[in-house]
Design a protein that fits this description.
The structure is a single chain. This protein is mostly helical. 54% of the residues lie in helices and 5% in strands. It has four helices and two strands, in the order ααββαα. The chain has helices at 3-10, 14-22, 40-54, 59-67, and strands at residues 29-30, 36-37. Strands 1-2 form a two-stranded antiparallel ribbon. The chain starts with a helix and ends in a 9-residue tail after the last helix.
Protein backbone atom coordinates (compact mmCIF):
# COMPACT_ATOMS: atom_id res chain seq x y z
CA UNK A 1 0.00 0.00 0.00
CA UNK A 2 1.12 3.55 -0.64
CA UNK A 3 2.15 5.90 2.15
CA UNK A 4 -1.23 7.66 2.32
CA UNK A 5 -3.04 4.39 2.93
CA UNK A 6 -0.36 3.20 5.37
CA UNK A 7 -0.80 6.45 7.28
CA UNK A 8 -4.57 6.02 7.41
CA UNK A 9 -4.40 2.36 8.46
CA UNK A 10 -1.73 2.86 11.12
CA UNK A 11 -2.89 6.22 12.45
CA UNK A 12 0.65 7.58 11.98
CA UNK A 13 1.34 10.59 9.78
CA UNK A 14 3.17 10.18 6.48
CA UNK A 15 5.87 12.45 7.91
CA UNK A 16 6.34 10.06 10.86
CA UNK A 17 6.50 7.08 8.52
CA UNK A 18 9.29 8.79 6.57
CA UNK A 19 11.05 9.61 9.86
CA UNK A 20 10.86 5.97 10.98
CA UNK A 21 12.39 4.98 7.66
CA UNK A 22 15.15 7.61 8.02
CA UNK A 23 15.92 6.24 11.49
CA UNK A 24 16.10 2.67 10.13
CA UNK A 25 13.09 1.46 12.12
CA UNK A 26 11.18 0.38 9.03
CA UNK A 27 12.19 -0.49 5.48
CA UNK A 28 9.24 -0.26 3.12
CA UNK A 29 9.44 -1.86 -0.28
CA UNK A 30 9.34 0.23 -3.44
CA UNK A 31 7.04 0.18 -6.42
CA UNK A 32 8.70 0.33 -9.85
CA UNK A 33 8.01 4.08 -9.92
CA UNK A 34 9.95 4.56 -6.66
CA UNK A 35 6.93 5.10 -4.40
CA UNK A 36 7.07 3.41 -1.02
CA UNK A 37 5.14 0.14 -0.68
CA UNK A 38 4.07 -0.70 2.87
CA UNK A 39 3.18 -4.32 3.51
CA UNK A 40 1.21 -5.58 6.53
CA UNK A 41 4.34 -6.59 8.46
CA UNK A 42 5.64 -3.02 8.15
CA UNK A 43 2.31 -1.65 9.39
CA UNK A 44 2.47 -4.07 12.32
CA UNK A 45 5.95 -2.77 13.15
CA UNK A 46 4.73 0.83 12.92
CA UNK A 47 2.02 0.03 15.46
CA UNK A 48 4.64 -1.39 17.84
CA UNK A 49 6.85 1.68 17.30
CA UNK A 50 3.93 3.98 18.05
CA UNK A 51 3.14 2.07 21.24
CA UNK A 52 6.76 2.19 22.40
CA UNK A 53 6.98 5.93 21.66
CA UNK A 54 3.76 6.55 23.57
CA UNK A 55 5.28 4.62 26.50
CA UNK A 56 8.14 7.12 26.51
CA UNK A 57 10.93 5.17 24.82
CA UNK A 58 13.22 7.26 22.63
CA UNK A 59 13.71 6.34 18.99
CA UNK A 60 17.32 5.34 19.73
CA UNK A 61 16.21 2.62 22.18
CA UNK A 62 13.46 1.44 19.87
CA UNK A 63 16.09 1.04 17.15
CA UNK A 64 18.22 -1.03 19.51
CA UNK A 65 15.20 -3.15 20.43
CA UNK A 66 14.53 -3.99 16.78
CA UNK A 67 18.23 -4.50 16.02
CA UNK A 68 18.28 -7.37 18.51
CA UNK A 69 15.19 -9.06 17.09
CA UNK A 70 15.16 -11.03 13.85
CA UNK A 71 13.04 -9.52 11.09
CA UNK A 72 10.16 -11.61 9.80
CA UNK A 73 10.64 -13.06 6.36
CA UNK A 74 9.21 -11.12 3.45
CA UNK A 75 9.30 -7.46 2.59
CA UNK A 76 9.48 -4.60 4.91
Amino acid sequence: MKISEASRVSGVSARSLRHYEDEGLIVPGRFSNGFRDYCQSTIDRVLVIRTLLEAGLPVRLIGQFFARRPRPSGRG
